[in-house]
Amino acid sequence: MSTSPVDKANTPEEFTNLKTTEPAKNTGGFKALKSAMMHASKYMKPSEAIKISTKINQKGGFDCPGCAWPDPDDDRSSLGEYCENGMKAMSEERQKKTIGYEFFANHSVEALANLSDFEIGKSGRLSEPMFLAEGATHYQPISWKAAFEKVGNHLNALSNPDEAVFYTSGRTTNEAAFLYQLFVREFGTANLPDCSNMCHEVSGSALSETLGIGKGSVTLDDLYKAELVMVIGQNPGTNHPRMLTALEKCKKNGGKIIAINPLPEAGLIKFTNPQSPIKLLTGGTKLADVFVPITINGDVAFVKALLLKLLEKETLECNVFDKDFINEHTHGYDAFISDLKQFDFDDCLALSGVSRSTFNDVFDLVLNKKKIIICWAMGLTQHENAVDNIRELVNLLLVKGSIGKEGAGTCPVRGHSNVQGDRTVGIWEAAPQAFLDKIENKYGFKPTTKHGYSVIDAIKAMNEKKVKVFFGLGGNFISAVPDTNYSAQGLANCNLTVHVSTKLNRSHLVTGKEALILPCLGRAEKDYQKTGIQTQSVENSMGIVSSTKGILEPCSETLLSEVAVVCNIAHATLKERSKINWLQYKDDYNLVRDDIQEVVDGFQDYNKRLKQPSGFYLPNGARKRKFKTATGKANFSLNKLPKWKLKDSELIMMTIRSHDQFNTTIYGLDDRYRGVFNERRIIFMNREDMKNRNLEEHQVVNLTSEFNGKIRKANNFKVVGYDIPKNCCATYFPEANVLVPIDSYAHTAKTPASKSIIITVAANK
């Protein structure tokens, strides 16, 4: 049985009958339809599944709580504007089964910790507040009033507000997120780590520095009109399946697609649109014109190789670079060219691991296209040099003039449905002074100007016993963060851990001395308040703010909305010393939006514009070649090549998701597109690397990482031979998060380097 926080934080080292087949060469189609229907019928009531399928991501409906891919501005599919994994997300959130007092009375924390993450998640929807007393083995019911008072008492007992950390998940709506950060700032701290710290923080840092806005510059319409789309370090077939429809339209319009990734992902090979009867019958659309099997963290080297050859061509012909754009809209070009010339093409290409013939195919496309979009995700952002990765992509777009015009620009593809919106409305441990000044002018208190803890900083502070209260608004913190054992000990050091959640997850089992689980409404559920059913809002990856309104009755009468939870905790904590009437907001969310429009740029006439069926676009200077940088122009940057080197016995490992997974939520045990079934404790390896280590298919191995003298281990993984570059390997998270060092993270942004972990693999004897 599990006894320590470390034991509770790690998934059981058990196998579940691994089966493997050849990886898929096509995605979507009848299999995607079958999978979506299977999950819906198994976990949801049939009537609710049908209603959800007609209202999810539709105008006047509710926003999918999964990924942040945008919905079309114009007509949306009458067959349903959702994907296979979107329906899995809804099947997870709107489960038929609910759990409360009886469930927790029959299951101790230790017993629950010995379940797999899949089993924990499928336990059912949380239906009432639960409390774990110090030394107790079981959660017990607690009233909402008592829960709010307990949080308030713990917070008010702190010697300093910085002894509390307030984490946020990307599923939180704009209204809840704004109130949450407002409460935290009035309480007196800026300790607002959030999930963006672990994924696209580097994108925000790099894009803000180079283009003046930490968001992408393209719209969905731009993707349809692009001449060339480069998809780098991203697996849209699993993580953003609706993106494939946009890529299909790009191909139909004559666009070309380059896929750059260590693994050949089926979603970028071929796509059969499951909502198109013709495509279902004819077999779909080939997407990637070129697949580039790049070595892990070879991206800067590869892009430098492209830039060097483009420069060589420009020197000879003077018509490759967009000189008019460069002269009028950019800064630092001469320094960039001077620095670029210090690199050797052959060295860069060798470091990237890409063959000369494949490079030439890519180069020919980049050379001859003027409307280029580059899309990327965590394959680029989770490295120590991740900021350099993004800045080098921007350099490529700048020399081609592919910023701020139709069919061209940057496209960081965000993960959770409102992670970008949360940052926009103030969830930020390092908020700009202009935002803090507006808070002070509006509410009459002076927010701290000291930067708060990011995720990495918060984990370290908890381990140093500088933090006594951890509060999580959504998410599964322990399964999302790096260095699982170290992080678990940090949480255990707290006096109180609190999680606002829809369903049970592993973070509820790795607790402080006391713990609270506060159940909240799901995105699809009606939010009843004094002024009627409330509408909320979210922002997608492309900066569109749209409404979301629940359509189903709450699964329990005891649930509260995230807005109501935040307002009640703020009221219970701050009491008479607050300058804000907190309880008014939970009665009418229009009041929250009235405040947001005064404090956050771009939200003028918020309530009025939110009624537009497709929502509204936030301002984006990069789209109009208005670059709000220190120079007033788009900035070229100077970026180094990564310096890591492998010993003969070592591999470089990246953590990835399976197809039955979104972030830390495990929908099932299959990775259908990669040909892996009924197992998650696996490691994808190059077959030559397996041979060199005398390893066979499905052999059990142990994994070890060493960083700065500290050894971390993950035992009992089965080897799966795969088409992955030599010296590279891949494992699923959160199972392999234990190997990710807390001190290995991106410069500038502190995003954990979960995609470049040096490990050794040894047979389990």
Please tell me about this protein's structure:
- Strand 30 and strand 31 (710-722) form a beta hairpin.
- The two termini are 23 Å apart.
- The longest helix has 19 residues, at 299-317.
- The radius of gyration is 25 Å and the shape is globular.
- Helix content is 36%, strand content 17%.
- Strands 6-5-18-17-16-7 form a 6-stranded mixed beta sheet. It has a 6-stranded mixed barrel with strand order 25-32-29-31-30-33. A 5-stranded parallel beta sheet has the order 12-9-8-14-15, with helices on both faces.
- The chain is α/β, with parallel strands linked by helices.
- The model has no long low-confidence stretch (mean pLDDT 95).
Topology, please?
Elements: H1 5-9, E1 19-20, E2 27-28, H2 29-43, H3 46-55, H4 84-93, E3 98-99, H5 101-106, H6 109-113, H7 117-121, E4 125-126, E5 130-132, E6 140-141, H8 144-156, E7 164-168, H9 174-187, H10 201-211, H11 220-225, E8 228-232, H12 236-239, H13 243-252, E9 256-260, E10 270-272, H14 277-282, E11 285-286, E12 290-292, H15 299-317, H16 323-329, E13 330-331, H17 333-340, H18 345-352, H19 356-368, E14 372-376, H20 378-381, H21 386-399, E15 409-412, H22 419-424, H23 433-443, H24 455-463, E16 469-473, H25 477-480, H26 484-492, E17 496-501, E18 514-519, E19 528-529, E20 532-533, E21 536-539, E22 544-548, H27 562-574, H28 582-587, H29 589-599, H30 606-609, E23 616-617, E24 634-635, E25 650-656, E26 661-662, E27 665-666, E28 676-677, E29 682-686, H31 687-692, E30 700-707, E31 710-722, E32 728-732, E33 757-763
Parallel strand pairs: 2-10, 3-4, 7-16, 8-9, 8-14, 9-12, 13-24, 14-15, 16-17, 17-18, 25-32, 29-31
Antiparallel strand pairs: 1-28, 5-6, 5-18, 10-11, 19-20, 21-22, 22-23, 25-33, 26-27, 29-32, 30-31, 30-33
